[in-house]
Design a protein that fits this description.
alpha/beta, Rossmann fold, seven-stranded mixed β-sheet, five-stranded mixed β-sheet, 49% helix, 15% strand, binds NADPH dihydro-nicotinamide-adenine-dinucleotide phosphate
Length: 446
């Protein structure tokens, strides 16, 4: 490690002990930024990197609720308000038993750079709870969401902090939280994105992260005169991002051969077509079942307890969770001929896996660039709410494509190396940093 990065990271680790995911996210950015900051000393003197790695505010609270048996349950709730230099805090809410301060701080930190890349006026934040929606009734999920919002409502607002969905938080949960916010504030405002169509949601928002990840992969392939047509694509996860990434790959003429959940993955060598995808949507969004049921229904292989990266593919789209591709997985992918990684999930590749991609000069689109389509359309939802109008599907999709292209251009501008190789990791980190850093400098030491 560069000794300057080592020194910086030592201070981050000392101030944030035990927060390994947060350290990982900060180090990845510091690796790209420290050489850039050395060349641009104004940022060094203003201690921008030190300030950007410290959340503006963290709220931690108790969430008591009563389950269907009448027993009292208690969960922990969080909102990390990371950076508001270029707009109100913006970032999703995650409900998953693994949620802790470290995971939410890493997500909020990444969000700052991602939101800046979208070109929209969005600051960075993230929140969530260790609540596990799996196996809970609709009534229990509603009780929990209402209790969560009974504390959170006083900290958020359409011009302050605008949450959205993430793992474990989809349309159902956003509805329950928005309903409780509205009741407590007696205001109908665009305080949440990912809302239902009938009550202020934007067309294309549910699709946006998955579609955007595929648009980004297509942009990367274009730099080599290639496209997704005819490519074999491995996707992990089977939730919101994975489903719509699959849909867009099919539309672009690719073949999706895997999907997964936390219990294992399915391998469908004939490809998951639109009809099978409809089955997955019904299975996951309505029945709330397991992906193993796909294997039973369509008579394909199910690999219990495994991740899909052992399958041969041209393109990999990790769309499940953080650190789901290890160094060994990355080596297997590259050995099997995978040439493109576009990250639908946040930080799905470990640092060693990223090194494998970069050493092998494959097209690697890091999450903060490749999955920014979700927050970009959230930004467009905020605009529509403020204007009190609603754009058509085509208008939103056209804007999403334009934004993904622009993010790709920014990565190219800041990440192209002397031999022409585009280091999207450096490009997205530096490209996302500059706007936020300049805004922070202009606003003084606050
Ligand atoms: P969902 O809850 O809809 O789906 C998550 C999927 O990932 C499920 O298939 C789930 O399986 C699987 N998964 C979750 N945790 C793990 C784990 N620890 N190990 C293995 N599999 C796991 O979430 P989303 O699709 O919304 O989010 C997926 C990723 O995309 C996350 O990293 C999220 O931060 C990122 N993202 C999402 C955005 C959005 O707009 N929704 C925007 C940008 C990024 P199971 O059902 O078994 O838990």
């Amino acid at each position: 490690m560069d000794p300057r990065t080592e020194k910086f990271m030592a201070s981050i680790i000392a101030r944030n002990p035990g927060e390994t995911e947060f350290h990982q996210a900060v180090q990845e950015v510091a690796d790209s930024l420290i050489p850039f900051i050395e060349e641009n000393p104004k940022y060094k003197h203003a201690k921008i990197l030190e300030r950007i790695a410290e959340p503006e505010r963290i709220i931690i609270f108790r969430i008591p609720w009563i389950d269907d048996k009448g027993d009292v349950q208690v969960n922990k709730g969080y909102r990390i308000e990371m950076n508001s230099a270029i707009g109100p805090y913006k970032g999703g809410i995650r409900f998953h038993p693994t949620v802790n301060l470290s995971i939410l701080k890493f997500l909020a930190f990444e969000q700052v750079f991602k939101n800046s890349l979208t070109t929209l006026p969005l600051g960075g934040g993230k929140g969530g709870s260790d609540f596990d929606p799996k196996g809970k009734s609709d009534n229990e999920v509603m009780k929990f969401c209402q209790s969560f919002m009974t504390e959170l409502y006083r900290h958020i607002g359409p011009d302050t902090d605008v949450p959205a969905g993430d793992i474990g938080v989809g349309g159902r949960e956003v509805g329950f939280m928005f309903g409780q916010y509205k009741r407590l504030k007696n205001e109908f405002t665009g305080v949440f994105t990912g809302k239902g169509r009938e009550w202020g949601g934007s067309l294309i928002r549910p699709e946006a992260t998955g579609y955007g990840t595929v648009y980004f992969a297509q942009e990367m392939l274009k730099t080599q005169g290639d496209s997704l047509k005819g490519k074999s694509v491995s996707i992990s996860g089977s939730g919101n991002v994975a489903q719509f990434a699959t849909e867009k790959v099919l539309e672009m003429g690719g073949k999706v051969v895997t999907l997964s959940d936390s219990a294992g993955f399915i391998y469908d060598p004939n490809g998951i077509d639109m009809e099978k995808l409809d089955y997955v949507k019904e299975l996951k969004n309505i029945k709330r079942g397991r992906i193993s049921e796909y294997a039973e229904k369509f008579g394909v292989e199910y690999h219990e307890g495994k991740r899909p990266w052992i399958v041969k593919c041209d393109v990999a789209l990790p769309c499940a969770t953080q650190n789901e591709i290890t160094e060994e997985d990355a080596q297997t992918l590259v050995k099997n001929g995978c040439r493109v990684i576009s990250e639908g999930a946040n930080m799905p590749s470990t640092p060693d896996a990223v090194e494998v991609y970069l050493n092998n000069r494959i097209l690697y689109g890091p999450g903060k660039a490749a999955n920014a389509g979700g927050v970009a359309v959230s930004g467009l939802e905020m605009t529509q709410n403020s204007m009190r109008l609603s754009w058509t599907r085509e208008e939103v999709d056209e804007k999403l494509q334009r934004i993904m292209k622009s993010i790709h251009e920014t990565c190219k501008k800041f990440g192209t190396e002397s031999d022409g190789f585009i280091n999207y990791l450096n490009g997205s980190n530096v490209g996302g940093f500059v706007k936020v850093a300049d805004a922070m400098m202009a606003q003084g030491v606050v």
